[in-house]
UniProtKB/TrEMBL annotation:
<dbReference type="InterPro" id="IPR050238">
    <property type="entry name" value="DNA_Rep/Repair_Clamp_Loader"/>
</dbReference>
<dbReference type="InterPro" id="IPR008921">
    <property type="entry name" value="DNA_pol3_clamp-load_cplx_C"/>
</dbReference>
<dbReference type="InterPro" id="IPR022754">
    <property type="entry name" value="DNA_pol_III_gamma-3"/>
</dbReference>
<keyword id="KW-0547">Nucleotide-binding</keyword>
<feature type="domain" description="AAA+ ATPase">
    <location>
        <begin position="37"/>
        <end position="179"/>
    </location>
</feature>
<dbReference type="InterPro" id="IPR003593">
    <property type="entry name" value="AAA+_ATPase"/>
</dbReference>
<keyword id="KW-0067">ATP-binding</keyword>
<dbReference type="InterPro" id="IPR027417">
    <property type="entry name" value="P-loop_NTPase"/>
</dbReference>
<keyword id="KW-0548">Nucleotidyltransferase</keyword>
<feature type="coiled-coil region">
    <location>
        <begin position="367"/>
        <end position="394"/>
    </location>
</feature>
<dbReference type="InterPro" id="IPR012763">
    <property type="entry name" value="DNA_pol_III_sug/sutau_N"/>
</dbReference>
<keyword id="KW-0175">Coiled coil</keyword>
<dbReference type="InterPro" id="IPR045085">
    <property type="entry name" value="HLD_clamp_pol_III_gamma_tau"/>
</dbReference>
<dbReference type="Pfam" id="PF22608">
    <property type="entry name" value="DNAX_ATPase_lid"/>
</dbReference>
<keyword id="KW-0479">Metal-binding</keyword>
<keyword id="KW-0239">DNA-directed DNA polymerase</keyword>
<keyword id="KW-0808">Transferase</keyword>
Amino acid sequence: MSYHALYRAYRPQKFSDVVGQKHIVRTIQNALKHNRLSHAYLFCGPRGTGKTSIAKVIAKAVNCIHFPTDEPCNECANCQTITNGSNADVFEIDAASNNGVDEIREIRDKVKYAPTTGRYKVYIIDEVHMLSTGAFNALLKTLEEPPKHVIFILATTEPHKIPPTIISRCQRFDFKQISIQEITDHLIEITKQQNMDYDEEAIKLIAQLSEGGMRDALSLLDQVISYSNQKILLEDVHALSGTISNHQLLQLIHAIYERDFSSAIDLIKELIEVGKEPSRIIDGMIMVYRDILVYQKSQKSVSDSLVNHSTFTQLANQLISTHIVEYLFKLNKIQSELKYSNHPELILEIGLLGLADEEPSSDVDNKNEYQIQIEELKAEIKTLKNLIKKVESTGGSGLREPRINKNESQFKMDLFNKSEPIEIHLPKEPDPIILPEHVPQTMLTIERVLSKATREARDHVLQKWTQLNPLIMPEHRDVIVLLKDGHVVAASEEGFILTYKHEPGCKRLLREDNKKVAEQIVAYLFGHPYSFSVMPESFWLEQRQSYIEQKKSGIEPSLKQYSQDLKNVINYNNEEQTKDDSLVDNMIQMFGADLVNIIDG
């Protein structure tokens, strides 16, 4: 006998074999038992959830010799002929290929004839939504008032395409997706019947990939059994389905967390080379991030293979839940962009490296900015409280004169009887900050920073950046403001990169006197000279992409560098000075030299 696929061999032959549709099975069994059958049923739901299988079980039950019964016997002639598809009273019609008016008219003409061997004629119309408008109209009258010996069972995955006039003439049953646990239990039972050893995590992965459809789960299981060697392993399922192992996904997520660009690029390249689709990589990352978030919140609902992995527990302790939520939204956006891109690999790399490079919106920058504002407000409130206390202690200026009792003890103190001056101690001003001696910085290239860039180094620079306050060093206020306007995008032990949205910001900081002070301020912040490179944001993004592409090609990156040459800056300053001078000349000509007072600074 020829081999039967698992989804055919294990197709439900009675109601007790149906998995995951208890609400439908119970309703139909009660109707069969009490002979309260409808003339038409509409089965709606996702593919592979049992619509056609239950329809055929109904056909057997109504024609079984033991009718009325809630289960067909599967032994009588009617049951057996319906099972093998040779019964003349049960018609299974595919509406996708028989969707014209003529086919439905033929059904309408034949329904009036009585069944030959059974009790009912049963018409099972699969994918009924594919019928044309004319075919629906031809079916309408027959469906409304069929002969007593006819039952129509319509099955569809898209009920919204069926006219309301058809739906209103049927008993509608909505099939739901089968749960992962129910599919897993059923697959384990079948695997045991097939005398196959199995890894439970592999069976669970098959159930997850089936997306609630038992037929898809059985088809994938059949394929894995053919591929495996005596035992179904998790690696076999990954190899056949194109999914990625948890170990590889955790490595990629850890590289993103550590800002390890080189490792992230190598991992992506390795996955692509072995045939993993970019969409599968994003799917896997979404699931792992989701499991990390669930583990942080509830310490459960995560597979054992993840919990027992040291990298998983490490990430669960290090990642912030709000950041994970933001990463999930970004990954979902990348997933949608992959569907419409002609270069999905490029979108994947840029998206994941952008995920690694960009700090979440709720990160240290905003927190420190808000913290500074809060501290300033606290200082102002404290000053106001002190002023209020002084006013209250002195009775207030311009307030109603209080009643004074000269006999009270405070008026008998020497303070009011002697004319000695009262000493007022003003708060001591803080000592001025002396910047360290200027040390010219060495040449710092972009590739030198990126090759050794780490998350810790960047976080360290950002932490120091929050200490920049123009009020502490008012004589260098302009340079500090320029530094705070920059955005630290990458850092290593050798130095860091500072970008500006517009090129004039770079040139102002690179002015000879400003840059010298900026280098001294940075050395003061870090306690030692620390090199940095300044460039526009657009230039940085171009060179970072060039770095990624060169890394991917397996060559040592060599990038363009933004000119830190002071000559270009001097020219720019001269040009600005010329503009300023021309403006002054115009003002003098308009109002006269005696009315124009030039204030420098």
